[in-house]
Amino acid sequence: MVLVGALVLAGSALAFSRRDGSASLVRLGYLSLALGALPGWIVMRAAAEWVADKEGLTGDQLPSWVNIGYSIADPGLLVLLVSTVLAGFSVRRSSRAEGPSGDRLGEVSAILVSLLLVAYLVTIWAMTTKPV
Amino acid sequence: MYDWLLFLHVLSAFALVGTVVIFSAFAFGVTVDSRLVVVGNALWNVGGLGTLVLGIWLALYIDGYEIWDGWIISAIALWAIGTELGRRAQLGYTPAAGAAVGAPPAALMHWLRSLVILALLVVMIYKPGA
Questions:
Q1: Residues A9, B35: C-beta atoms closer than 8 Å
Q2: What is the value of ipTM here, to two decimals?
Q3: Distance between A32 CA and the closest CA of chain B, angstroms
Q4: Nearest residue to B17 via CA among A116, A6, A115
Q5: How far apart are CA B72 and CA B75, in angstroms?
Q6: Per-residue 3-state assignment (H helix, E strand, C coil) for B7-57
Q7: For chain B, what are the domain ranges?
Q8: Tens digit of pLDDT per residue, chain B (130 long)?
């Protein structure tokens, strides 16, 4: 939940920063990813393995909803890392007042965060409805 | 029907935690941006309504659960406490309204609200007494 909440904050901050070029919003977006979303992902993933092991959901024949979780969470880390790095570069460029280049990085990061949010929406659906 | 009720109920809970994360940034000293406050408040309103309405609907819909079960009553009570704390936190982070004399410290109200949300999650997961 913290992971999704941090993504919402990051995506909102980065999106709003495009309108007024606010360096503080870009920084907030980056910090939300680095200090909120990434630790949140780690806790989510560790807890997922713990629960899967506890419930005997291991091996080759996994229910589809578990596979959906793995399929989104694991590649999602790469997307999260890329968006965090891009947001970090955007912060540096904003602080150096390199204008449009910094905005573009922040924009790409915001788009990646939005894609992650859609993906995690699907994951929440799979985890709650558990389609066979 | 059950799947959709549960999915939307859980999604509403995610919205509540989204509000907690946004306002936690403010409580940690990040400059309050009115647009982020609007996002946070919108998530709180949607999440609060969704968790309550859909939660009660689920309690009535599922055989084996009753609206008067201890853990459900506890959850509703925590929801009410969290709603009031959230209202006070919202006031504190809205400059015009927060100018009222004696308005409680917004950060304190937010952290108390966060604890109540955490307690609500614990009740939902462990269902004490069920």
A1: no
A2: 0.88
A3: 8
A4: A6
A5: 5
A6: HHHHHHHHHHHHHHHHHHHHHCCCCCCHHHHHHHHHHHHHHHHHHHHHHHH
A7: 2-126
A8: 888 999 999 999 999 999 999 999 999 988 888 899 999 999 999 999 999 999 999 999 988 888 888 999 999 999 999 999 999 998 888 766 545 544 568 889 999 999 999 999 999 999 988 7
> Distance (Å, rounded) from C-alpha B129 to C-alpha A10?
39
Chain B nearest C-alpha distance from A100 (Å): 22
The predicted-structure confidence for A17-52, as pLDDT tens digits, reads as follows: 988 788 899 999 999 999 999 999 999 999 999 999
Q: What is the chain B residue with the closest CA to A36?
A: B21
Residue A55, Ramachandran bin (φ over 0: left; ψ between -120 and 50: alpha; else beta): alpha
Q: Report pTM.
A: 0.89
Closest partner residue to B3 among A13, A25, A129, by Cβ?
A129
Quote the distance between the C-alpha of residue A81 and its chain's center.
8
Contacts (Cβ under 8 Å, ≥6 apart) of B12: B46, B47, B48, B49, B50, B51, B54
B52 at interface of A, judged by CB pairs closer than 8 A:
no
In angstroms, the first-to-last Cα distance of chain A is: 24
A and B: number of Cβ contacts within 8 A:
62
- Please tell me the predicted confidence (pLDDT) of residue B64: 84
Q: How far is the CA of B130 from the CAs of B10, B55, B75, B121, in angstroms?
A: 19, 16, 13, 15
Name which of A6, A16, A127 is nearest B35 (Cβ-Cβ): A16
Cβ contact, residue pair A12, B43, below 8 Å: no
Inform me whether the C-beta atom of residue B10 falls under 8 Å from chain A C-beta atoms.
yes
Question: In angstroms, rounded to a whole number, what is the distance separating the alpha carbons of residues A106 and A10?
Answer: 10
